[in-house]
Automatic annotation (TrEMBL), chain A:
Family: Belongs to the binding-protein-dependent transport system permease family.
SUPFAM superfamilies in the cross-refs: MetI-like (SSF161098)
Keyword Cell membrane: yes
Transmembrane segments: 12-33, 75-96, 108-130, 142-162, 183-206, 239-260
The protein, known as: Sugar ABC transporter permease
From TrEMBL, chain B:
Classification via CDD domains: TM_PBP2
TM segment ranges: 21-45, 77-102, 114-131, 166-189, 210-232, 270-293
Domain ABC transmembrane type-1: 77-288
Recorded family membership: Belongs to the binding-protein-dependent transport system permease family.
Chief localisation class: membrane
Alphabetical list of Gene3D superfamilies matching this protein: MetI-like
One term under GO cellular component: plasma membrane
Originating species: Neoasaia chiangmaiensis
Lineage per the UniProt record: Bacteria, Pseudomonadati, Pseudomonadota, Alphaproteobacteria, Acetobacterales
Subcellular location: Cell membrane
Protein name: Sugar ABC transporter permease
One of the protein's GO biological processes: transmembrane transport
One Pfam short name: BPD_transp_1
Membrane topology note: Multi-pass membrane protein
Amino acid sequence: MAIKRSRSHGLAIGALGWLVAIWIFFPIFWMFITGFKTEVEAISTPPHLIFRPTLDSYREVFERANYWHFTFNTVAISVGATAVALTLSIPAAYAMAFLPNKRTRGTLLWMLSTRMLPPVGVLVPIYLIARNTHLLDTLTGLAIVDMLTNLPIVVWMLYTFFREVPVPILEAGRMDGANRWQEITVVLLPLALPGIASTGLLSLILCWNEAFWSLNLTSSNAAPLAAFIASFSSPEGLFFGKLSAASTLAVAPILVFGWLSQKQLVRGLTFGAVK
Amino acid sequence: MNAPPAAHATPKKARSAGFALLAPAVTILLVWSIVPLVLTLWYSFRNYNLVDPTLHGFAGVNNYWYLLTDPDFLRSLLNTAILVGGVLVVSVGGGTLLAVLYDQEFIGRGIARVLAISPFFVMPTVSALVWKNLMLHPIYGVYSWMMRAVGLTPIDWLQRFPMATVMMIVAWEWLPFAILILLTAVQSLDSEQKEAARMDGAGPIARFRYIILPHLSRAITVVVMIETIYLLTIFAEISVTTAGGPGVASTNLAFLIYSRALLQFDVGGASAGGVIAIIIANIVAAFLVRAVARNLEV
C-alpha cells in the first residue's frame, strides 16, 4: 500500500525530527548536566561538555535548603488536591453522563467558564480570606485553592470518559440489585479506571507545577517546590551549579511521571476531541 | 447532544438522584466563582490600603479612573495581548508542523517525540530560571557563547527585548503541549485517505491544506482554549525573569495587579485591575466557549 519513498527523503525527515527534538530538549539536558559540574565549570566559556561529574552542588542544595520539606509539601498538596477533586467530580460526572437533563450542557459549559476566571482577578480577596481564616501559608489552604482551580477540568475529563462506558453494563448491574452507590463503586469505577487514572495524572502534574497561588499564598511553612526554585532567582543565589541541581530535583519526579503517562494524558486532555 | 437514555425507571427519582450527586461539585464551584468576585467588586469601589489604615471609605470610581488613565495599565494590556497572541501563533503553528513531522516514520521517532514534549512537564519557575541563566545569560549563557562563536556580540535578551524574550520562553513551554495534542489528532487520521489523495496526485502541500488541516480543527480548538486560559494569566515566568521590567516593558495585566496588591498594598486599585481582568477574560471566554460547544458537540 505505502509507496516506497526515496531513502534520502526518509533520512532528511529523520534528521530534521531529531534536530528539532534536541533543540527543544536542550535546556533540560543542559540543566541536568550543569548540576553535576563545579561552579567554576558551570560558568566556563566555551562550555565544557566533557568534565568530571561531581555531586558537590547536590550536596550543597541539600545542606542549604530543606529539599525534602518542599518536596513533602508539593506531594501533599498535589495528592490531597487531586484526591478531593476526584471525590467531588466522580458523582458529578456520573450524574451528567448517565442522568442528563436539559441543564446538563449548560452546567458543563458554566463549569468550564469558571476555569477561565483569571486568578489575578480574585487574588486580593482570596489572599485576604486566607489570611483571615489562618489558611495563609498552610498546606490545607493551597491544596483547597489548587483543588478548586482544577475541579472544572477534572469534571470535564471524567464526564468524557464516563460517556464511553456502555450504558447496558450499568443497567445489568442494576438488574442484579445494585443500588446507586454500588453501581458507581462496583460497576462504573473499575470500567472507567484508565480514564480516572489519566484525569488524576493530569491533575497531579498541574498541581505540581502550579506557580501563581504557590508564590502568592505561601512563604515558608507550606511552600512547594515551585516557590523553592523561585527563591533561586535572587542575585545572591546565582550559582549555576546549585541552581541546576535544585531545578533537576524539582523537575525530575514529575518529568519521569509525565514520560511514563503521556499516552493516558493525551486521552484525557483532548476532551474527546481526538479519538 | 446524544446522551445515553436516562437509565432508571422513574424519571423523577433519577432527577433527584442526579441533582444530589451534582450538588457538591456545583455548590463549591459556585461559591468559589461568586464570593471572590463579589469581594473584588466591593474592594474596587473602596479606598483600602493594607499599610495605611487611615485611608478608607467609599472611593467611587476613583480606583478605576486612576487605573484607566495610568499609561502602565495600557502597556500591560498590550503586553498581555502580545503574550497570548504571540505564543498562540508560535505554538499552534509550530505544533501543527511538528505534529506532521513526528507523524512520519524515522529511526528513534519514539524517543525524539518524548524529548520534544518534555518542556510541558517542567514547572514554569524552573523553565524561566534555566532560560534566563543557563541559556540567555549575556556572559555565561550557552546562546551567548554560540553567538560569540560565530562572531556576533551577545546581547542581554531580557534587557533589550524583554517582552519578546518572555514570549519565547513561554512558547517553549507550550509548544510541546500543542505537539502532544495535535500529533494524536494527526495519527488518528485515516491513512487510507492520505494515501488516496496521494494517488490522485495531491502534493504534500495540498494534502496538508485540504486533508490534515480540516481534520485538525477540533484538536486546534482544544489547544487554543486550554492555552488561552493559562496564557491570559502568565505570572511566574515574568516574576522570575524580569519582574515586569525594565520599567513596565514586560508587565502584563496579571503582574500589574500583583504588584499593586502585594508590593504597593493598594487593595482598592488592585481590585479594580482584577475586575477589568475578569471582564476581559469573560469576553474571551464567551468566544471560546461558543467555539468549544460548536466543535466538540457536548
